[in-house]
Amino acid sequence: MPERVGFIGLGIMGWRMAASLARAGFELTVYNRTREKADRWVAEHGGAVASSPAELAERSDVIVTMVVDGSQVERVLLGEGGAMEGAREDQLVIDCSTIGPTAAREIAARLAERGVHFLDAPVTGSSPKAEDGTLTIMVGGAPDDFERARPVFAAMGELIVHAGPLGQGQMVKLINNAVAAANAATLAEGLVAGRATGVDLDALVEVMAAGAGGSAMLDLKAGPMRAHDYTTLFKLEHMLKDVRLCLEETQAAGTPFAGAAHAHQLLTAGMGRGLGDADFAALLEAVEGLAGKRL
């Protein structure tokens, strides 16, 4: 039988990831800071609601966390009423949040003192792939822990990569997202440049898609950018956090990442425009503001 799984964090991604685990047949206990959301999830998908992370840990063999940042991961695992209050030796914690390698290693070390294993396993793919269980999952941690977690990963993801030791899943995710943000920024600038020079944007997008200018960001974001439709698949605020973490790590390593730094500035400007909860395609608004042109 599958191990009992506790899932903490039922946001845009977590809700769908937990649903994938339920469809795969795992016995699931969920916890969310807002109890009403957890109750709604159980009404739709079954399972049980825990009143605290500690209670969830008592009912689980494997604990999955999917929250916003390192401070939230630390709080739900190690804070008052946190999962470690109900933990047992040899439990496995899988953190699917994006918190950076430094925070992941620090939290893993504190859990290891209690005999609890830890994998950093951030995901990419946004809400549509979370919905159908085809996320990409990059994992850092011990090989034995990775193999133990493989059935859990298989329920939520399509491409599952063991990136190396603790923290390496986080670093792969940060670089990936920084490149994605840089691509989105370049796309926004290209579209605005096309508009400013009188180019037919349908023709521009068609040619770029067929040539070297093509990218996943072109496929995913050109339409929403042109429509100024920022329906949230991945929050601008969260992309800004990921790019910031990437720049902190690469700066410490003494390596440049100019494209990511430029995207960071545009995302920061988007936050200043009150677009933190919008999709990160809204960085277009900052580009339009700099150019004085609107698509």
List keywords for this structure.
about 300 residues; alpha/beta; Rossmann fold; six-stranded parallel β-sheet; three-stranded mixed β-sheet; 9 strands
Annotate the secondary structure layout.
Layout: E1 5-8, H1 12-23, E2 28-31, H2 35-45, E3 48-49, H3 53-58, E4 62-65, H4 70-78, E5 92-95, H5 101-112, E6 117-120, E7 123-124, H6 126-132, E8 135-140, H7 143-156, E9 157-164, H8 168-196, H9 201-210, H10 216-227, H11 236-252, H12 258-272, H13 283-291
Parallel strand pairs: 1-2, 1-4, 2-3, 4-5, 5-6, 8-9
Antiparallel strand pairs: 7-8
Helix pairs in contact: 1-6, 4-5, 8-10, 8-11, 8-12, 8-13, 11-12, 12-13
Plain-language structure description:
By secondary structure, the chain is of the alpha/beta class. The chain has two domains: 5-164, 3-Layer(aba) Sandwich (Rossmann fold), CATH 3.40.50; 171-291, N-(1-d-carboxylethyl)-l-norvaline Dehydrogenase, domain 2 (Orthogonal Bundle), CATH 1.10.1040.10. Helix content is 55%, strand content 13%. Helix 8 (168-196) packs across helix 10 (216-227). The chain is elongated and about 65 Å long. The mean pLDDT is 97.
